[in-house]
Amino acid sequence: MVEQLYIGADIGGTTVKLAFIKDDGSIVEKWEIPTNTESEGKSIPTDISQSIDEKLKERNIHKEAIMGIGAGAPGFVDTSSGFIHEAVNIGWKNFDFGSHLEELTGFPVWVDNDANLAALGENWLGAGKGCTELIAVTLGTGVGGGIIANGNVLNGANGTAAELGHVTVVPVGGVPCNCGKTGCLETVSSATGIVRKAKEIARSYPDSLLQTLLKNGELTAKDVFDAADDGDEAAEKVIHEVTDVLGMAIANMAIAINPEKIVVGGGVSKAGTQLLAPLEKAYRKYALKRTAEASNFGIAELGNDAGVIGGAYLVKKNK
Ligand SMILES: [Zn+2]
Questions:
Q1: Contact 310/303 with Cβ under 8 angstroms?
Q2: What three-state secondary structure class fits 182?
Q3: Can you give the pTM of this predicted structure?
Q4: Pairing mode, if any, of strands 5-11 and 66-73?
Q5: Most buried in the list 27, 58, 64, 91, measured by CB within 10 Å?
């Protein structure tokens, strides 16, 4: 019998990550193609389809082995049809991506938001393995969120459930967010938000390491964590403020689904316990005591593969 394979596709603003994945979640092959965002990203389904065709030939895999494609895109997705309402970074607006990819490849296609798929991947094989209730937060350039409730991804009435990055945390005088609102969590607790906060706090600490770093050039979120690790008071204050807001937002979310696990991923999560320790402390301060007792924190384990693994699982669950 031919071994069944799933295809995971994780569509980002710069690259599309693709993978052939076995039923047990192991990756047979993974590769990337550039995301062509020209002409509103219209060529992306064709690019994906052609690249899959080439790989299948190269590895001598018969089309019958493929159970389907699970694709993630950064935007608002109608999961029942694979229709994308909007994916700003890709250029898609009212784009019938799922049907288009299905026609081109001949495989059944399921589509979800990329952060939801990352949550699903971590839920299948990563830090949130087997959890029925899970909150996944991705801290990168922005803040992504995915929620598993009753064992399923929460999508909501029109695909905006679990958009944790857009929870309002600064009601008055907040910084404008890419979504059009102001004061979103994403403006505070993303890598970009951390750097903004660092610049703000450094002004009151002229002798700090943070201020020296700023004078010498561009600052990154990692520099802030490194400076805090070296005992810089200003950098410690930045991390305290950022994790306090994030912990509060997660605690408020936790009331809705009573999670057993909170998984933190994305570039900023590379800070490890330096991030997790103050975050968990803030969470326990703001959460209902009994809610906090049920949950623990973990750093995402699947890294850049979370999206494609989640995509494969989406097919496996629906097939
Ligand atoms: Zn926003």
A1: no
A2: strand
A3: 0.92
A4: parallel
A5: 91
- Residue 245 CA to ligand 1 center (angstroms) comes to 15
Contact 123, 146 (CB under 8 A): no
Residues 8, 70 contacting (CB under 8 angstroms) = yes
Local structure of residue 64 (DSSP, 8 states) = G
Query: Is residue 35 within 8 Å of residue 14, measured between CB atoms?
Result: yes
Q: 16 alpha carbon to ligand 1 midpoint, in Å?
A: 24
Q: How far is the CA of 166 from the centre of ligand 1 (A)?
A: 4
Alpha helices in the chain (DSSP H): 44-58, 97-105, 114-125, 186-189, 191-202, 209-216, 221-229, 233-257, 273-286, 289-294, 306-318
C-alpha–C-alpha distance, residues 279 and 254, integer Å? 14
Q: How far is the CA of 140 from the centre of ligand 1 (A)?
A: 14
Residues, beta carbon < 5 Å, ion ligand 1: 166, 177, 179, 181, 184
The amino acid sitting at 188 is V
Contact 137, 268 (CB under 8 A): no
> How remote is the CA of residue 184 from the centroid of ligand 1, in Å?
5
